[in-house]
Amino acid sequence: MKKINVNDEACIGCGACVSLDEEHFAFNDEGLSHPISQDNLNSENLKNAIESCPTSAISLTENSSDNDETSIEDDEDCCCTSCDGHCGCEENEA
Ligand code: SF4
Question: Which residue range forms the structural domain that includes residue 49?
Answer without folding.
Answer: 2-62
